[in-house]
Write a structure and sequence with these properties.
Blueprint: E1 30-32, E2 35-37, E3 44-46
Antiparallel strand pairs: 1-2, 2-3
């Protein structure tokens, strides 16, 4: 097993989800009202896009 792989207990929720990162530049998205916004490149998703 590599250092990047970790085993999770059954029922444990991963701390970070792929949807929390910008698909353009990979920076972590920030929540602002009803949007997820990338502080690095300005990409954003509205609530209706990630339901």
């Amino acid at each position: 097993m590599s250092d990047l792989e970790t085993l999770e207990e059954p029922g444990e929720v991963p701390k970070e989800q792929p949807s929390q990162f910008c698909p353009v530049c990979s920076a972590k998205l920030e929540s602002r009202h009803c949007k997820q916004v990338c502080p690095r490149c300005g990409y954003f998703m509205s609530c209706s896009e990630f339901e």
